[in-house]
Design goal:
Layout lengths: L7 H25 L8 E5 L6 H17 L3 E5 L6 H8 L7 E5 L1 H10 L10 E17 L7 H10 L4 E5 L5 H13 L3 E5 L3 H9 L5 E5 H5 L7 E6 L12 E2 L10 E9 L4 H14 L3 H9 L3 E2 L4 H21 L7
Parallel strand pairs: 1-2, 1-3, 5-6, 5-7, 8-9
Antiparallel strand pairs: 3-10, 4-7, 4-8, 4-10, 4-11
Helix pairs in contact: 4-11, 6-11
């Protein structure tokens, strides 16, 4: 039996109607798609609970939870200097529900010192820096110096190398000290400790000559007669230490800090990035958060994604110089 030939012209209007209805359905579905965030968001912190980075992440989580009426939950993953957490974020779904609250240590320094399972440029998209903690130079009060200039003269003239404590090999404080010694033309003996607390105690106990530590560590000892605070690593003087000079006044362009900010997986939708950046900028202006940050010696920032990207790019040659000055090489 032969079937009659079908005329496609007869069905064209029907097909067009179906296609049109389908297109309306797609548009409708897109319009009804829930906006970010519509469920819990995880903020991954690459350090243990209790430190400055963790504190800033929790301040952010509280602010964002209220702003978006969703739960932002801090999760600490302090393994291998944050390289494991970074690799996990790089491979997480790029949907804005897993945020990385990172520092220069993960995005700039670690890839210079060890093989990591992520690419800081290719795997991540910068969002916003909430705040940046400068480093402060404290010296043993038994040293015959009272100003930064006198310290530099003493260090250059010293017949023996000065001892400097650090919160660990490759830490920002370690690299800041190495960079200063290189720029100023003197040598140091580095004494690494397991964290900033022990490194600070070494200075207070006069076991070392100097320590370039987080501002929060040195600010808490401002009135101590066992140390002298001589300089800060910011481009300008700190609000909390108006009488203390910036290293950059002697060595232009010298600037190091422990910034803390949000990054997401590279292909995260731009509208999510923009919403999170705007919220972080607002958080950095919130009076309660500003007061808390400044108490910790942290400067509120609230950067745009483009500004954060520029900061990371500018730090790479600076820390490369510091890594070389410290004599550090890529671990096998």
């Amino acid at each position: 039996m032969k079937f009659p030939a079908l005329s496609f012209k007869r069905f064209a209007p029907v097909a067009a109607a179906i296609a049109l209805a389908s297109s309306f359905g797609v548009v409708s579905a897109q319009a009804q798609a829930p906006a970010w965030p519509n469920r819990n968001v995880t903020i991954v912190v690459p350090f243990p609970a209790g430190g400055n980075t963790d504190t800033m992440a929790r301040l952010s989580a509280d602010f964002l939870s209220k702003r978006f009426n969703q739960s932002f939950i801090v999760e600490n993953r302090p393994t291998a200097g944050g390289s494991v957490a970074a690799a996990q974020i790089a491979r997480a779904p790029a949907d804005g529900y897993t945020l990385f609250f990172a520092t220069a240590s993960q995005m700039v320094i670690l890839p210079m010192l060890q093989k990591v399972n992520f690419n800081a440029d290719a795997d991540f998209k910068p969002v916003s820096i909430l705040g940046a903690g400068p480093f402060v130079l404290g010296v043993n009060s038994t040293l015959p110096v009272k100003t930064f200039e006198e310290f530099l003269d003493y260090a250059r003239a010293s017949k023996s190398k000065l001892n400097v404590s650090s919160a660990g090999i490759g830490s920002i404080g370690h690299l800041t000290s190495a960079l200063l010694a290189k720029r100023a033309g003197f040598e140091l003996v580095f004494v690494p400790y397991q964290g900033g607390g022990p490194a600070m105690n070494a200075l207070l106990n006069h076991d070392v000559d100097m320590y370039f530590g987080n501002a929060s560590e040195l600010l808490s000892q401002m009135t101590s007669d066992r140390i002298r605070i001589l300089a800060v690593s910011t481009l300008n003087r700190m609000k909390q230490l108006p009488d203390v000079v910036a290293v950059s006044s002697k060595y232009p362009g010298f600037q190091t800090s422990s910034w803390n900010g949000f990054l997401v997986a590279k292909s995260t939708p731009q509208d999510v990035v923009d919403k999170l950046a705007a919220a972080t900028i607002a958080a950095a202006k919130d009076p309660r958060i500003v007061e808390r940050l400044e108490t910790l010696g942290i400067n509120p920032i609230g950067s745009t994604p483009e500004e954060m990207e520029a900061v990371i790019a500018a730090e790479k040659p600076l820390y490369k110089e510091a890594v070389d000055a410290a004599g550090l090489t890529m671990a096998p």
